[in-house]
Amino acid sequence: MTVGNLRNARLIINQEAIFNNVRNAVEKTQAGTDLFVVVKADGYGHGAIQVARMAEKAGAKGFCVALLEEGLALRHAGFTEPILVLGITEPAAAAIARDQRISLTVTSDEWLTTVAAILAQQPSQAKLAIHLAMDTGMGRIGFQKPAELKQAISTLTRFDKVFEFEGLFTHFSTADSKDDTYFNYQYENFQKMMAVVKQRPKYVHVANTATSMWHQVCGANMVRYGIATYGLNPSGREITETPYPLFPAMRFEAGLIHVKKIQKGRSIGYGATYQAKDDEWIGTVPVGYADGFPRKMQGFSVLVDGHFCPVVGRVCMDQFMIRLPKRYPVDTIVTIIGQSGSNQITVDDIADQLETINYEVICGFSERLQRKYV
Length: 374
Ligand SMILES: *Cc1c(COP(=O)(O)O)cnc(C)c1O
What we know:
Layout: E1 9-13, H1 15-28, E2 34-38, H2 40-44, H3 48-58, E3 62-65, H4 68-76, E4 83-88, H5 94-99, E5 102-106, H6 109-121, E6 128-134, H7 146-158, E7 163-170, H8 181-194, E8 203-207, H9 209-214, E9 222-225, E10 250-255, E11 258-262, E12 267-268, E13 274-275, E14 280-285, E15 301-304, E16 307-312, E17 320-324, E18 333-340, E19 343-345, H10 347-353, H11 358-363, E20 370-373
Parallel strand pairs: 1-20, 2-3, 2-9, 3-4, 4-5, 5-6, 6-7, 7-8, 8-9
Antiparallel strand pairs: 1-10, 10-18, 11-14, 12-13, 14-17, 15-16, 15-18, 16-17, 18-19
Helix pairs in contact: 1-3
Bound molecules: pyridoxal-5'-phosphate.
């Protein structure tokens, strides 16, 4: 993907904010528990390598990714910490993980026997580190029954020349909710599963950001810390009290590339969906839906010189138009996320407009947008 390094539009990533978020979390994590920072999806759109560097400085002990490829990118950048792939990896790629010391998530006994056979063909001193996932109610991946888990553990033991049983984990689906009922149900299932585990592996982990902030879970010694690394609340607007302040790490700014006065009655954009009610000042911003600024942003207001300015007309692929309160010169800063004067726009404001969650907004900004690190 070609990056728009020369145009007047950028995501500005505040590295100090990331450092402080991770540092605060590390300080609140109980002794003996390791904080792994989740940098999947290019560090939730912030740049996985840059985020990992800050997280490492702030005391993170390892990293979680969704894809093996994302783990390899960290290894290639020189990170030596433990890395766990949270998704399911193709058996054919298992040897790559082993050779790069990347731990894999496993959810079926068949996967283990298949991979044991493959790895036997490519002998190595190194073992492939395995985390067994337990589906206690998320309904995504993982062993559902204690007996299945027990079987997988015995397979790991049988093939202990090729595998290292490194971790056991589960994932809560409602940890960001005020209602604890389903969380408690999952927690009970977790305890039933753990009852068949005779010897605990190195890591037992259950906590994403929300669980780490709002729940006490016994017996775990690792946290998969994601969204709050980036300064965002996992609960959106539902639970607003966090155990420590969060510093949003992403700003989104562009410069006006064209400013003009249009006469009353003239239209703006594809489909001529907006008509000027008066003579109006209109600014054009060099960002569009190909950058992850969706057409649904029509009607949202961005900030210019501290004033909210509505997005008028349809958002185009590479540009959108806004109504200005007066004439502003070309290159005047348009704030899409961040503070301008005494007003601000948060990622959650954009999530509300798009009827989604802050996670999807930050992951949705395309590679074409320049990331600038400050
Ligand atoms: C993405 C993910 C996380 C991180 O979740 P946050 O809500 O961002 O903290 C943790 N665990 C698993 C299994 C995940 O897929």
